[in-house]
């Protein structure tokens, strides 16, 4: 494929992801290619497009996961801090039993 043919196919892909047979034959004729070449190019381009979308989704999910893990760490730290604070309160408010000998 020449650069011009590739650009033309990219423009066509931007307008329509799948080609019906008449449109495929028309594009092939306009570009001086075989209809099978056009079909394979579109098939490969759809696969690349799907792969890119999956990578973007993976990045989005990874960022959400990382944010959730960080939030969980903050919550765990807060719970441990509250637990220690409660434990200290219990220790300082505990009274000793009175001896009858006092």
Contiguous uncertain segments of 5+ residues = none
* Count of separate DSSP helical elements: 3
Note the overall shape.
Answer: rod-shaped
Count of individual domains: 1
Query: How many DSSP E strands?
Result: 0
Q: Look at the structure and give the CATH class.
A: Mainly Alpha
Evaluate the radius of gyration: 33 Å
Secondary-structure content class: mainly alpha
Task: Output the helix-strand order.
Answer: HHH
Strand percentage lies at under 5%
Report the biggest beta sheet as strand number plus sense, adding barrel if it closes: none
CATH topology: Arc Repressor Mutant, subunit A
Roughly what percent helix?
Answer: over 70%
The CATH fourth-level homologous superfamily: Homeodomain-like
Mean pLDDT across every amino acid position: 91
What's the CATH architecture? Orthogonal Bundle
What does it look like?
- Helix content is 81%, strand content 0%.
- It has one domain (3-93): Orthogonal Bundle (Arc Repressor Mutant, subunit A), CATH 1.10.10.
- It is an all-alpha fold and 102 residues long.
- The chain is built from 3 helices and no strands.
- The longest helix is centred in the middle third of the chain and has 59 residues, at 35-93.
- It has helices at residues 3-15, 21-31, 35-93.
- The mean pLDDT is 91.
- It is rod-shaped.
Task: Describe what is shown at a glance.
The protein is an all-alpha fold. It is 81% helix and 0% strand. The chain has a single domain, classed as Arc Repressor Mutant, subunit A (Orthogonal Bundle), CATH 1.10.10.60.
């Amino acid at each position: 494929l020449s650069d011009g043919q590739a650009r033309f196919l990219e423009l066509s892909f931007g307008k329509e992801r799948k080609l019906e047979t008449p449109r495929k034959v028309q594009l092939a004729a306009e570009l001086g290619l075989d209809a099978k070449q056009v079909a394979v190019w579109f098939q490969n381009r759809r696969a690349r497009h799907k792969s890119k979308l999956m990578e973007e989704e993976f990045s989005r999910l990874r960022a959400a996961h990382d944010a959730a893990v960080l939030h969980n760490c903050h919550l765990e730290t807060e719970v441990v801090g509250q637990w220690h604070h409660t434990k200290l309160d219990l220790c300082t408010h505990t009274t000793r039993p009175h001896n009858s000998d006092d």
